[in-house]
Amino acid sequence: MAKGIARRIIPGFAPTLGLTLAYLSLVVLIPLAALVLKAAGMGAAQWLDTLTDARVLAAFKLSFGGALAAALVNGLFGLLIAWVLVRYSFPGRKLVDALIDLPFALPTAVAGIALTALYAPAGWIGRFLPVQVAFTPLGVVVAMIFIGVPFVVRTVEPVLQDVDAELEEAAASLGASRPQTFRLVVLPAVGPALLTGISLSFARAVGEYGSIIFIAGNLPGVSEIVPLLIVTKLEQYDYVGATAIAALMLLVSFAMLLAVNLLQKWNRQRMGAAS
Amino acid sequence: MNRAALKDPAWVRWSLTALALTFLLAFLALPLAAVLTEALRKGVGAYAASLGGEDTLAAIRLTLIVAAIAVPLNLIFGLCASWAIAKFDFAGKAWLVSLIDLPFSVSPVISGLIYVLLFGAQGLFGEALRDHGVRIVFAVPGIVLATIFVTFPFVARELIPLMEQQGRDEEEAALTLGAGGLRTFLSVTLPNVKWGLLYGVLLCNARAMGEFGAVSVVSGHIRGLTNTMPLHVEILYNEYDFVGAFAVASLLAVLALVTLGAKSALEWWHRDELAAAARH
Fold it and tell me: What global pTM score does this model have?
């Protein structure tokens, strides 16, 4: 009843929803549907041809393997950074906190050439490393780590702030050591958020293009990522190949999105139950 | 946090902090410093000269034009979507919110590809467009479309949770007291969400000016015509004009820093007036 009245009092439902749906359809849904339709219209032979190609398989292996490695590194260091930012105070903490979002704000091409300059054999960091990073698959992982940093920190930070200090205190007073308390009290509390952050970082890294192609070296079969392969196929007017690879990537992205949504739901339930 | 049981020993605190800061130095701070150093490697004169080039100016102009079209359109969309979603109840609302977020989970390259498949020479509408002499792909309209796609959710995803938090009471009060719909929106809703709106627009603009992958696929890379600043960075870099590439990149880095600064300022001073979920 109350809802019915509210609907009648506040004006503008039909035009705003109509405009929203029209714009969403024109810009997002119809173009994406065109890709899905084109992919659906392809024969099994075309799919098999494209997706069993050694170069394509190598690219998928690199994109997913690299993204997994980068996401795990980000999981570890993201948790560490969130812990340091939430629990400790040190000079410049606010500045460091603001810097975390740099990968969201810095255009990927800029990040790409900057990372390449740093990690090239003669670069500021590259010259001190025992192995070559730039222009190898390792370079791909470095760029993927860069773009994934904020995801873990920003999902873990608020949860860490909410962890009930009394629980930790109770654990300590019952004789738990600090590492035990961390493993048995803190880690289970931030677990879902940490997993969410790692998945977001992974999903972003799989699709990333701009920051990777400069540092990767782009050697087919060795350091060539899937998004670059799509671009290469397009430049060769191989629309079928590009569509097949893109459709597969889109499928994986949506599966990841679903997983992240479920994780976040779990996370919210856990946070709700704790407070 | 000052309870003894919760305090880590000093050596733990220091080594964890040092480890975290070293990681951030290697992956975030040094890349930023590298952009500025490389840009100024051959002095201020060379820096200024490479920024004054005709192609560079054309790239800057195109980037500004694209952002000036994409950001307002997404702003209007964001306002409409958040009004409809936050102020009314209807079936399928959760679905609509997920669909609005969709472009964030699509690879930038695919965001460009879908427009090539629609409007390219071999695309669905390719022939019809050619007959009418309209160019979308490898021209400015394609760049605008791809930019709109990748920046689509920014304003809406900030405003929807914010307006939902604020509920409908104030609008209903204004309307009951005789204010019109537009007046209610302008003098009740808009002041309530102004900082959140600014926050969304800032992020939307940063991405619009900095997008590379999606724009790269639809641009065609025609110097002076379809090159945005990020694409121009790539061209200069691939021609081994490193000072030029890093000079243009430094402008984009400054844009990123200004965005980060404004974003942090909003978060410090107006935290209560931003959506809780803002920090994605």
Answer: 0.91
